[in-house]
């Protein structure tokens, strides 16, 4: 099992980037080597709106689980809000 501690240098394997979406090559899921860009693509292009959907599309979060909190942060930033529209009765 991996530690949830940040790596020391930013070479795509660190967790010290200042914010979600700041480093496309950064490895978000160390167990399966899933990058930030893969997570964002799963959300924006493939329509993932839940942690489970991101996991199914990328496998991120299915290893040790350290990245699950961060996946939720990506969802909060990149997932389109679900808008419920009430149909007017005819």
Write up this protein.
It contains three helices and two strands, in the order ββααα. By secondary structure, the chain is mostly helical. The chain has a two-stranded antiparallel sheet. Strand 1 (27-29) and strand 2 (34-35) form a beta hairpin. Helix 1 (36-44) crosses helix 2 (51-58) and helix 1 crosses helix 3 (68-78). The protein is globular.
- Put simply, the count of helices is 3
Order of helices and strands: EEHHH
> How many extended strands?
2
- List low-confidence stretches: 1-11
> Helix/strand/pairing class, anyone?
mainly alpha
The biggest sheet, with number of strands, parallel, antiparallel or mixed sense and barrel status, is:
2 strands, antiparallel
Strand % is: 5-15%
Principal-axis shape: globular
What is the class in the CATH system?
Mainly Alpha
**What is the typical, i.e. mean, pLDDT?**
80
Number of domains: 1
Main sheet: strand order? 1-2
Cα-based radius of gyration, to the nearest Å: 15 Å
Kindly report how far apart the N and C termini lie: 58 Å
Percent in helix: 25-40%
CATH superfamily: BFD-like [2Fe-2S]-binding domain
- What's the CATH topology label? Arc Repressor Mutant, subunit A
């Amino acid at each position: 099992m991996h530690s949830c501690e940040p790596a020391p240098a930013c070479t795509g394997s660190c967790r010290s980037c200042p914010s979600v979406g700041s480093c496309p090559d950064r490895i978000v899921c160390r167990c399966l080597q899933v990058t930030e860009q893969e997570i964002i693509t799963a959300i924006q292009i493939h329509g993932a709106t839940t942690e489970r959907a991101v996991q199914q599309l990328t496998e991120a979060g299915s290893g040790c689980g350290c990245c699950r909190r961060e996946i939720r942060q990506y969802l909060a930033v990149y997932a389109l809000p679900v808008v419920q529209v009430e149909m007017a009765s005819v």
